[in-house]
Design brief:
- This protein is an alpha+beta fold.
- It has 3 domains: 118 residues, Zinc finger FYVE domain-containing protein 21, C-terminal (PH-domain like, Roll); 358 residues, Tumour Suppressor Smad4; 58 residues.
- 30% of the residues lie in helices and 26% in strands.
- The chain contains 16 helices and 27 strands.
- The longest helix has 47 residues.
- GO terms for molecular function: lipid kinase activity; phosphotransferase activity, alcohol group as acceptor.
- One of its GO terms (cellular component) is cytoplasm.
């Protein structure tokens, strides 16, 4: 697939090689709108490099190129270093751009004929965004996250790539719990262009909350945030296609962003919490929080905790009300929170005196209790839990899944069969709805860590005869927000559409309007111009990977053919050699004597 604007914008004569010390070949170098190609002179062998894969370069300084030369330099015309440009890029070995095993670092060197060509190439390369734009990054590294991979990832992958990018970066390690909240809350917005989290979803959650609780949150929310996975969950990085540290670092360097919806979670007389990934209550929340004791197992800890909790299933009583998607309510300009925090529309529903929210709020279909309730903003609920590909994290719509299923086989089967294929919602385990707001009124409130704080709010649903028959769990359960615990009490969740910006690969995109979930039909919507460009870049990178894969397959076929021919020749030489014939004759006489 060729992009629509694939015409050559500039052409150079040079020598090309894939490493500085390898043999170079005379070539014609072409700069196009979205890719760089070079063809070996006198052949039809052409190599292609999408700009979206370039993360660094080595080239002479433009000021040095502009400086006048001495007579001796004029005599030898140009030095080698003044004519050499090296591009560093990420190369994919398969068409699966989300695979961790597919991307690898590579480089290509171009030796130009004249310094003027180098200057012209570098000028055009910056105009066409071949090279990364100079920016200032702050790396927030959690050395204790997950299985302790953050420091190693930073030292072996991130910093070597950053040093070649031309970007300015600083590194700061977290030293205590919720340190990332303090870092994001105090960072000087004039001194940094993006925050990069080197950890899992928990530290990204802390950074989001640190930015949105600042006095200047309106400006802070526009600061791009990126994540390079080094935790045990890594759900968000997996959802945006940056599960590989190489691709995640490439996205941080290139600087492409996507809008991100944020969930605002409010409780009476408690600080507001913001979520970019998920909220859960019930089995999945219990398993997520309880898995912390198995952190040394890495991602496997979620599977272990999930099986244990499915066996020892709990039933939580409560009422859940939902608001239709994208429903707007006028906000009084005299709101006490206006200017100090993002304004919420239905804060009055948190008052205990409000028995039931007014229309258009509605109560979820009659549910005697909940065993699972999940609000998800991304396609993955964990690194290996691919929930559904119908979720868009920037469409302003919340998607809620809920269930009162208690049969063990009915719960465990989808997680065993469909955990990685995106079909978890198609087994009839959970019901779903789209909404613009959620109000949860649990039957029991309290701090999960403090049994003395438990308070029954709805006796009929907790201690009545029907509740006893259903074996209702009388503890409040756990409210899980991006892997962090919050008190179980009346909770209002509202969505802040396209509220922040997240760093993504240049080829990542969502359709502007999501596929319909309510009527069960897929409605293809017209793509935005940005989505069209991203899709074209993705197809270009996949085509280059496909060409490379086909070349490797051809090489493997030739090697196998040569090995087979060598085996035949060897066998012929052995079987028909004089020593073998003598041995065969002796064996024949001995056996048939």
């Amino acid at each position: 697939m060729q992009l629509k604007d694939a015409k050559t914008l500039a052409e150079f004569e040079c020598s090309a090689s894939f490493t500085q010390h390898a043999k170079s070949y005379p070539a014609f170098l072409h700069l196009k709108a979205n890719e760089l190609t070079w063809t070996i002179r006198g052949t039809d062998i052409t190599s292609r490099l999408p700009y979206s894969c370039v993360y660094g370069y080595e080239a002479p300084d433009l000021e040095r190129l502009n400086a006048s030369q001495h007579d001796l330099e004029d005599l030898v015309k140009n030095t080698l270093n003044d004519r050499l440009v090296t591009l560093h890029f990420i190369e994919f070995t398969t068409q699966d751009l989300k695979s961790v095993a597919s991307p690898q670092k590579s480089e290509v060197c171009f030796l130009f004929q004249d310094r003027k060509d180098v200057k012209r190439f570098l000028t055009l390369a910056r105009e066409l965004q071949v090279l990364p734009k100079p920016r200032r990054l702050l790396l927030i590294v959690n050395p204790n996250g997950g299985v302790g991979l953050a420091k190693k990832t930073s030292d072996t992958v991130i910093k070597p790539m950053m040093r070649l990018s031309g970007l300015t970066f600083k590194e700061q390690y977290t030293e205590y719990g919720k340190h990332a909240v303090d870092i994001a809350h105090k960072v000087d917005l004039d001194q940094v262009d993006a925050l990069i989290v080197v950890s899992g979803d928990g530290v990204l959650h802390e950074v989001v909350n640190g930015l949105l609780t600042r006095p200047d949150w309106e400006r802070a929310r526009r600061l791009p945030v990126g994540i390079i996975p080094a935790g045990s969950g890594n759900a968000f990085a997996t959802s945006v296609g940056t599960k590989s540290p190489y691709v995640a670092t490439l996205a941080a360097i290139r600087g492409t962003t996507a809008k991100l919806d944020i969930f605002s979670l409010s409780q009476l007389d408690r600080p507001r919490i913001y979520s970019m990934l998920l909220f859960s209550w019930g089995m999945m929340a219990d398993a997520d929080i309880e898995s912390d004791k198995y952190r040394w197992l890495g991602p496997l800890r979620f599977d272990i905790a999930g099986v244990i909790r499915a066996i020892r299933l709990r039933r939580y009583p409560g009422k859940v009300y939902v608001l239709p998607p994208k429903h707007k309510r006028e906000i009084s300009s005299s709101s006490s929170e206006h200017g100090h925090a993002p304004v919420i529309s239905y804060g009055d529903l948190l008052q205990p005196s409000v028995q039931e929210p007014p229309k258009p709020w509605r109560l979820l279909p009659s549910m005697p209790y909940y065993t699972m309730l999940l609000l998800l903003n991304c396609s993955h609920a964990g690194e290996k839990i691919f929930f559904t590909n119908t979720i868009r994290f920037n469409d302003g719509i919340m998607r809620l899944w809920y269930s009162c299923e208690t049969r063990f086989w009915k719960i465990i089967l989808p997680f065993m069969v469909d955990q990685t294929n995106g079909k978890l919602i198609h087994r009839g385990l959970m019901q779903d709805t789209e909404c613009g707001g959620i109000l949860i009124v649990p039957g029991v409130e309290g701090d999960p860590e403090d049994p003395n704080s438990h308070e029954i709010k709805d006796p009929d649903s907790v201690t009545g005869q029907e509740a006893k028959r259903l074996d209702i769990h009388q503890a409040p359960g756990v409210f899980d927000v991006d892997g962090e615990v919050m008190p179980t009490a009346r909770l209002l969740i509202e969505i802040l559409p396209s509220f922040m910006e997240i760093l993504v690969p240049e080829w990542f995109h969502h359709e502007e309007d999501p596929l319909s979930l309510t009527d069960g039909r897929r409605k293809e919507e017209k793509e935005s111009p940005e989505a069209v460009v991203a899709r074209q870049k993705k197809e270009l990178v996949q085509e280059v990977a496909r060409t490379r894969q086909a070349l490797e397959n051809n090489v493997q076929s030739v090697v196998l053919l040569l090995l087979a021919m060598a085996a035949v020749v060897t066998a012929y030489a052995i079987f028909f050699s004089e020593p073998f014939q003598l041995w065969a004759g002796l064996a024949k006489r001995t056996l048939f004597k």
